[in-house]
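Schema walk-through. Below, the input block comes first and the output block second. Nothing else is stored per chain. Lengths vary across the set, and this one has 327 residues.
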Amino acid sequence: MYSFDKVLGNDHIKDNLRSVLSSGRVSHAFIFSGQVGTGKKLIAYTFAKALACSKINSPCGQCISCQTFESGNNPDIISVRPAGKSIGVDEVREQIALKMRSKPYSGKYKIFVIENADKLTVAAQNALLKTIEEPEDYGIFLLVCKNYNLFLPTIISRAIVLNVHPLPSDIILSYLIKNNIASEEEGEIFASYSEGSIGKAAALAADEEFKDLRTNFLKILETVENGNAADAIKAAEEMANYKERVKDGLDVMELKYRDALVYKSTERADLLAESFLVKSAKGLAKDKTLMQLTKRLEAVIQAKRELLQNANARLVLEVMLLEIKAC
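--- output ---
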């Protein structure tokens, strides 16, 4: 059931939306921007449900509007999704502009939830802008996206932008344990690599390959730290064999160097992302300076950037590991 109580974290957004509902002063356009798995779509649809609810400052979950929403049949809430890689101008005209001409069936508003709205083409955005600029009194647009900066400035200026933040690791850990997705120790691992996304954490918990990958990359890191340049070259070859999963492996290395750097700076185990591996963080930090750990971390981050730009994986990994050996 969609309700604000089901939304984890992002209290600033929930408070903002509740204030809008209680005041009755609703803008015609809202942008919910955030990374995958942060709950932005859940927040947007909960807000849509609340706007259509017959009660004030709800959703109540009991009225006809709420019940038809939960069954996916509320005629006053229209979902717009990309049919392919983008949302074109024809889709905007057919799914939004034409439907906007008819008044709401029963509620006060007709609400359009545009999922993956940053996939709107420029032509589609211009078509949408015409509707947003001169909306019907009952028209509400909720744009859900990863990056609102891909919108035209004219659209951004006419919308309330709500940045949905990644969730803290403790909230994700609590969710994993409460829903029997992972034990506390394993949950710490998945929460650490989740990048603030419950969806990613749950996916990692079900991913047996990731567990093996993490173990292997930690072994590779240890080999590189204790070996010579030739060992680093060999390790790069081994890492490159993971192909599309290399980024996950670099996430493992990045977190390990991050924890070592944090412990070197503070000597506080409670600040580590993987606090149960404090002994490992101590060992990695013991004989290295802050500068050496920083350069190691920077080398991993730079390698991740280059791989995202489709650079040659083997070459990028070799350079990264040789830089680690050199510092």
